[in-house]
């Protein structure tokens, strides 16, 4: 069972969330702007929020099949797709496995995996799966990794953005992390993507090096690159209006 929300008017766009996040963690300003000319679909990945865990292994391929199944259930034949971080891995795989379902592709703060890419910073995953720390302590450790120090200095109240953020159970986080790090990568398959593609990255992403985005635009024919100066991994929360 997949928990989802739809809102707005216009052509559909499926938003695929990243590691540890839920459908409620997209920036509200970003969503409001996007919904003025799109029907926006947000959902919880397997094991997150109100989406059931199921009986299958957590893999990028399985998350991809889940996403395609949601589009089928909603009777959406074709949709723009935006994937954030782990969600960007899913969005790439969705475009390759189900090309007829994807219109435009937006890959945000992500990579194509394998030995051709720079893997995510393991410190964040180690912090998140540290069950000896309280939820508040984990937030204080993890959230600064998502932004740049300059931006944090200028936005002292930034932690308030995460007041309602709840980390999923440690077991689910570990299974998601295993799915990310066990992925063999699809860099060499990206040449087969024919959709109009935009790759978005922050120049100071501490979780996933922006160098990965350069690989994506080199591999995907005609892909465009959007760089956000002083943008971190969570640049959506830094610059929601510009991301629209």
Write up this protein.
The structure is a single chain. The chain has 244 residues and is α/β, with parallel strands linked by helices. It is 34% helix and 17% strand. The chain contains 10 helices and 7 strands. The chain has a 7-stranded mixed β-sheet with strand order 1-3-2-4-5-6-7, sandwiched between helices. β4, α3 and β5 form a beta-alpha-beta unit. α2 crosses α3. The longest helix is centred in the N-terminal third of the chain and has 14 residues. The two termini are 30 Å apart. The model has no long low-confidence stretch (mean pLDDT 93).
Question: Any key phrases for this structure?
Answer:
globular; alpha/beta; 244 residues; 17% strand; 34% helix; 7-stranded mixed beta sheet; 10 helices; single chain
Query: What radius of gyration results from the CA coordinates?
Result: 17 Å
Mean pLDDT: 93
User: What is the strand arrangement across the widest sheet?
Assistant: 1-3-2-4-5-6-7
Helix fraction? 25-40%
Q: Which overall shape is indicated by the principal axes computed on the Cα atoms?
A: globular
Give the CA-CA distance, first to last residue.
Answer: 30 Å
Brief sketch in words of this structure:
With 244 residues, the protein is an alpha/beta fold. Helix content is 34%, strand content 17%.
């Amino acid at each position: 069972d997949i928990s989802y929300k739809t809102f707005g008017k216009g052509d559909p766009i499926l938003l695929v969330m990243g590691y540890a996040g839920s459908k409620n963690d997209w920036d509200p300003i970003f969503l409001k702007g996007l919904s003025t000319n799109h029907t926006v679909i947000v959902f919880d990945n397997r094991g997150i929020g109100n989406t059931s865990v199921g009986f299958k292994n957590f893999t990028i391929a399985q998350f991809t099949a889940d996403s395609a199944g949601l589009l089928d259930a909603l009777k959406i034949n074709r949709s723009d797709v935006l994937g954030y971080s782990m969600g960007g891995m899913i969005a790439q795989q969705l475009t390759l496995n189900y090309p007829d379902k994807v219109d435009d592709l937006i890959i945000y703060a992500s990579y194509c995996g394998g030995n051709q890419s720079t893997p995510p910073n393991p410190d964040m995953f180690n912090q998140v799966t540290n069950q000896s720390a309280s939820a508040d302590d984990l937030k204080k450790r993890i959230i600064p990794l998502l932004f740049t120090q300059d931006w944090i200095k200028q936005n002292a109240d930034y932690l308030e953005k995460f007041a309602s953020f709840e980390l999923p159970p440690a077991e689910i986080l570990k299974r998601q992390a295993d799915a990310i790090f066990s992925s063999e990568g699809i860099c060499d398959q990206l040449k087969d993507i024919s959709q109009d593609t935009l790759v978005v990255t922050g120049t100071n992403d501490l979780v996933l090096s922006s160098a990965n985005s350069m690989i994506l635009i080199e591999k995907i024919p005609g892909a465009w690159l959007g760089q956000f100066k002083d943008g971190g991994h969570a640049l959506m929360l830094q610059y929601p209006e510009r991301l629209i």
